[in-house]
Every structure is written in structure tokens, then in C-alpha cells.
Structure to design on (680 residues):
């Protein structure tokens, strides 16, 4: 009989759904994954494991499914499970201020202690994202250890066989323990058959010294998806794995990480990083393609392992430069968070909870699907940002003046906010003098929360008929100069010919003022139209005015500054999102006709139209003082990829207001557009 030395299994499973997903998603996740998994574990009381539940998911369970809470409390009391803490709303801490990071960490720690009777010693870090200074944040919040992917330890120079125990890592005078989880086992268990897993454990058992095998997984693997549900429960793979652990408990012992943090362990310094399979997506699109190509070439070498362990993608913060929309939400979140800290402490707590809810990591990055590309995820983040801003305005209105000039996104160019009682807009002179944020304040709703059709990397060839890229961001009041025969399809496909240099170029702030009409901003760009190799000078002025009655008025003055007449089509582009393409309570009214945001259409002789979202009590009216004019309308979709299939995500819709012109030298053209929220 072969003697097998003991090995220790540290099994961690993470349960989370981001803020902003539909209630039915929470319910499905609970019924299909969380409960079946917990009951399976409960039937094997000798198996010990660690569980992590994000704070917002625990709140959902507390309100909607006490069965899970009661079961967790029972299993904690019996010593079968150990709970991990972390950031309450599942943030990634490099996106947050130090103050907000500590609040996130302490909030979940306290919630678990109060509601589940357990004081967590370990912290779960979203997507295994790590920065060395996290040591200080975790230690100051009462945490003693965390779990990270083995690739970070290999980046630090360790061999896979050396990742067999915890390590001590330090920052300044703080320290915590770090465990490296086995990324391959974490993917294979319990989906591989036991006969294929057993030899690996036998081999590990024959190694010298103590052996810890850490496995860290998402709870979604345990039944949330139909294919995994079939394997885990119908093919009994989870039950087989649990039975294997029971039968081999003489040499395979399931333990908690906290059982190993009182001894002496080597010190390690881990580099910045995150989950290995996600690191290519941090890079700009072209670099992602080059990275994956180079990585695949390396894998063909017989000695690939020598190189791949040092082969890293971009820093996680690079997502903010890759996706301006994510950067915008991020900087608005930080702006409001700073304003909260300027309030007296007794006024901060409930406002802080709203801003913390906007810090969940999902909205700030993207890989194959969801994340930033989920419109409901973006909407939820903005809802909490605007809700926090609304509460601050009620308690300290001086912090949000009716007109405010501030470089809140740290790009060295100012943005301008105009605010009334029910409406606020953010004007970005650097981005074509357009509006990047158009808010209906009573329901904390940003209706310009759209997304450009970004280039994306997928593991399979993209169906060409499904894929369109945009060369500019999708904001409100973008200025196109195009040929007179430009069609609706040209805009839908992004194949139109742009003559002007106004769309994504900077406008100069000429003046900001309080007038008898309201608060106004005058912007100007002395730009040009380009035919062949010649530039023809054109000037576009945009004057925005927000009235006390919540009406936004925009007056264009476009001047031919050159010495020849020019005839073109001016298109004012308006991008908006009411989240659904075909919901019966979200629609558009034009010329007594009803359209949905998902329809592609053109309409002649339009004076006015109304965008309605009954779910958020919005009736958004538009009026053309210089009408009637021709309108184009079309939806914007990006691609997603999941389990071998491509799909489409709705990101918003576009109006193009068309005004043909023939301007002689020094001649001007005007266009007035009014917008107002007609109800509250």
C-alpha cells in the first residue's frame, strides 16, 4: 500500500451579482446556484470551505431570501464554513480613494459580524487585482489574509511547486498573509472526472514539506449557467467531488486559510496585477491583438513556461484610458465622494452609502461581455452618483452652484455644469463642445449615458455584418459636416464622409454668465472643412442656456469664414439612452407616430418630438425653432461573446438633425434647439 502524505485543500467560493442587474437575475442566481450549492455542502459536514458573499448580494438575501442567511448562520456556527470579507460593493481598490477603500472594507466586515455572527479574517479581492499598497488598506481594516491567483506569485519569480503555503507580504510597517490559488485546479474542479484529478493530488502528496492546494472559484460555476448546471448536478460532478473528499479525508484535509496564519512564513513582494486571462484586455485594442498573437506564438515553444510566467498585460487602471466612458463615470464618482467628505461628519453616512454603491468594479472594465458594456450597469452607477449628489444639494446647496467650471476629470481642461431644480448637464468643451451628461434629477437618470461602438477582441472571427466601430464618442450635440447625399445607412454603418474638424475637437470657452434667460455658456471653434488637400475656414458657435424653468436652449451660429461659397449638410447628432430597444413603456413620439428606441427610421418635416420612459417618470421634449427639418434615427449595438456565441448589447440610440446649407463668404446660418423635461 502506498503511503500518501497529507495535503491541505483550501476551497474558496465567491458569490456575487453586481448592482444594476435585474431582480430576476438575483433570484435566478440564488435558486440555481447559491442554494443548491449550500445544500450540497451541508450534506457533507466533514468538508470545510470558505465562502465570500459581496455586501450587496447579502443585503438582497437578507431582504428576499432568509433561507440562505439562516443556512449560512447555521454552517458558520457548526464550524463548516469560514466567511471572507472584502469591499462591500465588490470594488477594485486602485479605482478608489484611500478613504472610500477603508469604508468599503470596514462596511462588509461589520455587516458579516452583525448579521452572521462571524468576524472575517480574510478578504476577497475582485478579479484578483493587486497593488502592493493594498496591504495597508487590508491591515487597517482588520483583515489578516487574502487570496490571489498563482500567476502573481509566478510573476514574482516563484515556481508553481513553491506556491504550497502562505506568504507574508508587507507595505511600509503593515503586513498580511497571501495565499496563491491554483488557477488550473480552480477551472477543472469539479468538472473533471475524479479519475483525472486524483493522480495530480497523489503527485502533490509525494512532494517534500507541507502542501497546501488553494482553489478559488465563482459561485456562478455551480449552476447559474445551463451547461455548468448539467455537469454539476445532473452529471453529479459536485457530488462526486464531495464524496471524494469524504472518502480520502485521511490524507486530503479541507481546511480554512485562517488555520495557517499564526506561523512563520517567508516574505514575498508581489507585483501589480490581476487575473492572467484578463490582463490582455487592459491594453489598447491594437496592443491586445499583438499581445494575444505573441502569447500564442510563445505557447508553441517547448520551453514556453520559462517565458509565459513573466509575460504580463497592462495595468488594471489602463481600462480608464482605454474606455473614456468608464473614465468619465469614475471621475464623477470621485468628484462626488470628495464633496461628501467636505460635509460635517454627522451628515455624511447615508450619502456615503450611495456613492459606495457606485464603486462596484463591474462598470469600470470590459472583456468579452457585460461590464462597462452593460447599459443597466452604467445606469445603476450613475443613479447612485446622482442620488448622492442630490442628497448633498439638499444639505449643502453651496457645494453645487447653478453654473460651475471645474476640471473634475483631471484632463487639464475644464468642464462646465449647468444646474436647475430638475435638470443638470455637463458640457465638455474638449469633446466638440458637446454634452456628456444630461440628467433628469427627480429620478437620478442620466439620459446621455451611452457607449461608443468600441473595437473589441474576441477569440473567434467576428461576423462582419454584426460589427461596426465608431471613431468618436457618442455624446449630445456633436457637429457633423457631410455631403448632401449622405444617407441614413451611411450613419448607421459609420461609413459617412466627414468634412469638418468639429466632432471630437476642442471648443474654446468664450463666456459663462448669468443672464435674464438663465445660466449660459458660449463656446466657439474656429475650425475648417477639408476637401481634397484644401482647408476652408468655418466657425461654429454654440450657446447653451439653462433656464429657471429647466429648459435647455442651444443656439448654433455657423459662419463661412472663407472666400468661396460652400454647400453641405449640417448634422447635429444627439445620442441618448432609455435602456431598452422595445419595452412598451419606453418610446418616442414624432408627428403623432410612435417609435421604439430600437427602430431605424427617418422622418420628414419634424418640428418636435418626445422621448418617454414611464419607468423613470421621464417625458423629454425636443423642439426645433428653425424647423421643420429632416431626422434620422438608429440604435447603437456592440457585440458580446459568451460560450462560443456572439450576441448584441444595446448601448443607446442616435438622432441626426439634418439642415442643408449654402453659405456665401462671411454668411451665417443659425439653428435653435430646445429641450425640456415636461414632467417630474
Amino acid at each position: 500500500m502506498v503511503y500518501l502524505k497529507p495535503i491541505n485543500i483550501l476551497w474558496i467560493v465567491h458569490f456575487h451579482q453586481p448592482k444594476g442587474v435585474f431582480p430576476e437575475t438575483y433570484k435566478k442566481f440564488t435558486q440555481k446556484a447559491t442554494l443548491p450549492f449550500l445544500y450540497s455542502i451541508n450534506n457533507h459536514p466533514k468538508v470545510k470551505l470558505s465562502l465570500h458573499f459581496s455586501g450587496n448580494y447579502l443585503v438582497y438575501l437578507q431582504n428576499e431570501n432568509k433561507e440562505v442567511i439562516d443556512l449560512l448562520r447555521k454552517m458558520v456556527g457548526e464550524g463548516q464554513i469560514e466567511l471572507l470579507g472584502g469591499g462591500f460593493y465588490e470594488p477594485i481598490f486602485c479605482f478608489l480613494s484611500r478613504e472610500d477603500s477603508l469604508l468599503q472594507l470596514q462596511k462588509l466586515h461589520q455587516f458579516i459580524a452583525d448579521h452572521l455572527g462571524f468576524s472575517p479574517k480574510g478578504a476577497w479581492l475582485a478579479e484578483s487585482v493587486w497593488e502592493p499598497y493594498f496591504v495597508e488598506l487590508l491591515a487597517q481594516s482588520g483583515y489578516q489574509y487574502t487570496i490571489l491567483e498563482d500567476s502573481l506569485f509566478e510573476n514574482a519569480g516563484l515556481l508553481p511547486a513553491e506556491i504550497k503555503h502562505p506568504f507574508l507580504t508587507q507595505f511600509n510597517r503593515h503586513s498580511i498573509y497571501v495565499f496563491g490559488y491554483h488557477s488550473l485546479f480552480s477551472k477543472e474542479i469539479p468538472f473533471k472526472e475524479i479519475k483525472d484529478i486524483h493522480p495530480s493530488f497523489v503527485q502533490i502528496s509525494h512532494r517534500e514539506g507541507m502542501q497546501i492546494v488553494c482553489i478559488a472559484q465563482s459561485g456562478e460555476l455551480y449552476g447559474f449557467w445551463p451547461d455548468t448546471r448539467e455537469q454539476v448536478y445532473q452529471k453529479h460532478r459536485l457530488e462526486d467531488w464531495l464524496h471524494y473528499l469524504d472518502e480520502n479525508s485521511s490524507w486530503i484535509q479541507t481546511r480554512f486559510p485562517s488555520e495557517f496564519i499564526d506561523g512563520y512564513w517567508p516574505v514575498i513582494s508581489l507585483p501589480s496585477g490581476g487575473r492572467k486571462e484578463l490582463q490582455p484586455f487592459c491594453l489598447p485594442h491594437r496592443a491586445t491583438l499583438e499581445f494575444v498573437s505573441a502569447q500564442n506564438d510563445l505557447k508553441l515553444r517547448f520551453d514556453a513556461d520559462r517565458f509565459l510566467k513573466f509575460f504580463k498585460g497592462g495595468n488594471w487602471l489602463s481600462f480608464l484610458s482605454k474606455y473614456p466612458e468608464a473614465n468619465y463615470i469614475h471621475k464623477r464618482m470621485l468628484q462626488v465622494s470628495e464633496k461628501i467628505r467636505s460635509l460635517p461628519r454627522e451628515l455624511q453616512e447615508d450619502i456615503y452609502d450611495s456613492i459606495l454603491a457606485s464603486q462596484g468594479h463591474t462598470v469600470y472594465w470590459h472583456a468579452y461581455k457585460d461590464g462597462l458594456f452593460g447599459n443597466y450597469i452604467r445606469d445603476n452607477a450613475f443613479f447612485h452618483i446622482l442620488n448622492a449628489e442630490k442628497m448633498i444639494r439638499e444639505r449643502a446647496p453651496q457645494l453645487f452652484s447653478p453654473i460651475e467650471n471645474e476640471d473634475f476629470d483631471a484632463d487639464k481642461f475644464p468642464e462646465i455644469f449647468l444646474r436647475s431644480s430638475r435638470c443638470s448637464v455637463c458640457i465638455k468643451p474638449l469633446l466638440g463642445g458637446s454634452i456628456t451628461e444630461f440628467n433628469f434629477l427627480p429620478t437620478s437618470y442620466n439620459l446621455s449615458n451611452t457607449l461608443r461602438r468600441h473595437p473589441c477582441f474576441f477569440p473567434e472571427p467576428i461576423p462582419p455584418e454584426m460589427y461596426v466601430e465608431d471613431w468618436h464618442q457618442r455624446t449630445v450635440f456633436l457637429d457633423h459636416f457631410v455631403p448632401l447625399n449622405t444617407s441614413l445607412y451611411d450613419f448607421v454603418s459609420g461609413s459617412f464622409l466627414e468634412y469638418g474638424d468639429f466632432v471630437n475637437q476642442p471648443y474654446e470657452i468664450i463666456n459663462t454668465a448669468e443672464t435674464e434667460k438663465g445660466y449660459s455658456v458660449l463656446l466657439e471653434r474656429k475650425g475648417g472643412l477639408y476637401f481634397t488637400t484644401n482647408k476652408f475656414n468655418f466657425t461654429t458657435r454654440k450657446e447653451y442656456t439653462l433656464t429657471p424653468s429647466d429648459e435647455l436652449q442651444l443656439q448654433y451660429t455657423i459662419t463661412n469664414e472663407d472666400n468661396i461659397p460652400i454647400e453641405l449638410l449640417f448634422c447635429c447628432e444627439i445620442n441618448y439612452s432609455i435602456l431598452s430597444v422595445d419595452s412598451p413603456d419606453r418610446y418616442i413620439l414624432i408627428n403623432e407616430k410612435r417609435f421604439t428606441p430600437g427602430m431605424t427610421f427617418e422622418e420628414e418635416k419634424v418640428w418636435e418630438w418626445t422621448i418617454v420612459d414611464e419607468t423613470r417618470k421621464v417625458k423629454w421634449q425636443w423642439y426645433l425653432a428653425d424647423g421643420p427639418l429632416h431626422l434620422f434615427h438608429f440604435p447603437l449595438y456592440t457585440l458580446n461573446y459568451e460560450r462560443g456565441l456572439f450576441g448584441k448589447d444595446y448601448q443607446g440610440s442616435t438622432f441626426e438633425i439634418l439642415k442643408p446649407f449654402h453659405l456665401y463668404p462671411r454668411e451665417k446660418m443659425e439653428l435653435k434647439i430646445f429641450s425640456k423635461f415636461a414632467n417630474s
